[in-house]
Amino acid sequence: MTSAELDQRIAAAEAWAVADIDPASRHATRSLIARAREGQHSAITEIIDAFSGRLTFGTAGLRGKVGPGPRRMNRVVISQTSAGFAQFLIEREQRSGSLQLDPPSVVIGYDGRTGSAVFARDAAEVMAGAGVRVFLLPEAGPTPLTAFAVRHLQVSAGVMITASHNPPADNGYKVFLGGPDEGAQIIPPTDDAIAQHIDRASQVAPTTIARAHDYVTLGEGVANAYVAETASAVLRGLPADPKRPGRALGDETDLKVVYTAMHGVGSEIARRVFRSAALPSVIVVAEQDRPDPKFPSLEFPNPEEPGSLDLAFRIAGDLDADLVVANDPDADRVAIAVKAPARQPARAPRGYRQRPRVASQQFRRLTGNELGLLLGWRAAEREHARAKIAGTEPRGTLASTNVSSPALRAVAEAYNLDYTETLSGFKWVSRVPRLIFGFEEAIGYLTHPGHVRDKDGISAAADAIAMVRELKAEGRTVWDLLDDASELFGHFASSQVTLRLPSMDVATELSARVRTTPPTQFGDTRITRARDLMNPGEATVPANVLRYDLADGSRVMVRPSGTEPKLKVYLDTFAGDGTAAERRGQAEATLAQLEAAVRGYFDGLQLSA
């Protein structure tokens, strides 16, 4: 960047500081300017990044680092976004003809991250100032609660201030729509329409955006209703004990569960759901049980990340627990771990930082695909039980994203249910007609679509706890159940190669390089079909996803992350001959060879850049 261009960025930062509505942010901007003028490289880099363009509003809403500037999450960006979203809602009501009867309405929730409570109040004031009826949830809470509230309160929209499982420095602005969208996340072209309104709102001085304080701060009613409805749905789906009429299978079985909220907002409401569903009390990881935006015991607040469950594993090992349950910080995702199966040594996945304590190595986290298979199978069984009692045919749809394991398709076929494969993201999964269960491999599950139209790590956790309790009552384990699945559906093995990159732009560029230098084979196995979902007709909506079907039945999917600077490569293999152990061995051997070949391809691609 030339000195003249840097001067332009510094001038933009100075203008920002003058217009900023937040005194602390204003001070931070002026400090940044002073350090940049002194030649500090870090300050120059920050000014260039924070004041070059704006955060892009898309189907995931907004996500970015907290800090001053239009490419950061701050009170100005939140206010402008809320003003634009309010105008979108008003126009939407005008087109429907209902504005004369009632103004649009919105419920706003927030998590425990840096700035979340303040951002939520800014959103409430701005949207109320625009004439929208606003309901603010009373305290920091999980994303599924806000998604539930949209349907429960029958409002026009929902806003959740959260960055979910992103790094600690981030925050975000997530949008749901009510009415015909039934509380689902936004999809194209709605995201573009909202973005246009936000762009117009960003052209006016932040201090001139109208605000009002006549919004409603809700009480405990929404949370109480969420707990009651979630627990009721879980209880209705519990399989009956054939030896004890009227009792649920395993309801008297002692199960020792360790639970971590990962410094997030899930613990209190999750434990309320577990109690109301007559599930075992959990032993919390005390150091991670309360919201803390610094996430002091974690490098990355995501249950999928290597080492993120070390503390929970050590506690579970010390207590000889049966199960570890982890919600991510906004509790829309869940991971579970159980003692590693006797059929193989307790080994850590690639990249896992080994710990000296043997106890921590006795537990293995199920992959998102493994738990998705088991919960989807459970949902199919639940629907068959319902249909038998009602004297009807089973009906409904199982759904997963196109980068998730294809195992759920086999479950649907075996149970005579419909199956749908969607683009990545629960904005698509939740909109599948007649949905009874949906999942994505990134530990996101929708187990009870009747009252939440987004992934819900709390209801999924409750179902997982019940499932493990039932297995223990029968003297069995999750690994036994996965073997049963391999016998019934064939063995599906999955893995993911994640390339961490300096920025989202670099991830997109690397994906584009795959298009210009496409592989023709991985290892010794040739590619029989290549699909680019950006091409018209390949997907419902063009998506930056590349799919390669291999001659041996394996599959490779490539896409940049929508929320983090990563390129993700999804690998799937299948074996359907022999015993469960033989199928597993064959599929996992093929997977190991495929992973090595894929890593070699991308290593070469990056070196040639």
UniProtKB/TrEMBL annotation:
Swiss-Prot/TrEMBL cofactor(s): Mg(2+)
GO BP field: carbohydrate metabolic process; purine ribonucleoside salvage
Record GO terms (molecular function): magnesium ion binding; phosphomannomutase activity; phosphopentomutase activity
InterPro entries in the record: A-D-PHexomutase_a/b/a-I, A-D-PHexomutase_a/b/a-I/II/III, A-D-PHexomutase_a/b/a-II, A-D-PHexomutase_a/b/a-III, A-D-PHexomutase_C, A-D-PHexomutase_C_sf, A-D-PHexomutase_CS, Alpha-D-phosphohexomutase_SF
UniProt-listed Gene3D superfamilies: Alpha-D-Glucose-1,6-Bisphosphate, subunit A, domain 3, Alpha-D-phosphohexomutase, C-terminal domain
Key word Isomerase present: yes
All copies of domain Alpha-D-phosphohexomutase alpha/beta/alpha, residue ranges: 55-203, 252-337, 391-484
Superkingdom of this protein's organism: Bacteria
Domain Alpha-D-phosphohexomutase C-terminal: 535-573
PANTHER family per UniProt: PHOSPHOGLUCOMUTASE 2B-RELATED, PHOSPHOMANNOMUTASE 45A
Family: Belongs to the phosphohexose mutase family.
Name used for this protein in its record: Phosphomannomutase
Organism: Leucobacter exalbidus
